[in-house]
Amino acid sequence: MTVRYFAGARAAAGVASEPVDLRPGGTVDDVLALAADRHGPVLDKVLSACSVLLDEVAVRDRSVAPRPGSVLDVLPPFAGG
Q1: pLDDT digit string (tens) for 13-38?
Q2: Terminal-to-terminal C-alpha distance of the chain
Q3: Edge-to-edge strand list for the sheet holding 51-54
Q4: What sign for the dihedral angle of Cα 63, 50, 77, 56?
Q5: Which is it for strands 57-58 and 71-75: parallel, antiparallel or unpaired?
Q6: Is the pTM of this model over 0.70?
Q7: Fold of 2-75
């Protein structure tokens, strides 16, 4: 699957996107934990405030398992109007 980072999440991760190999039955929470382990405590802190989209649909239950080839978008809070 692919993880795409936006705005402050992109800055914290140091990449715009990256592939993630997720074990069968892995969840969105697992993907985010892998990302935090890979990129460190700054991204971990940012992730705690982020919304995520799985294949362009907002994820409210992070225990959902992405399908192979899915795209997970990591979106930090936005300000402005």
Answers
A1: 999 999 999 999 999 999 999 999 99
A2: 32
A3: 17-19, 2-5, 71-75, 51-54, 57-58
A4: negative
A5: unpaired
A6: yes
A7: Ubiquitin-like (UB roll) (3.10.20)
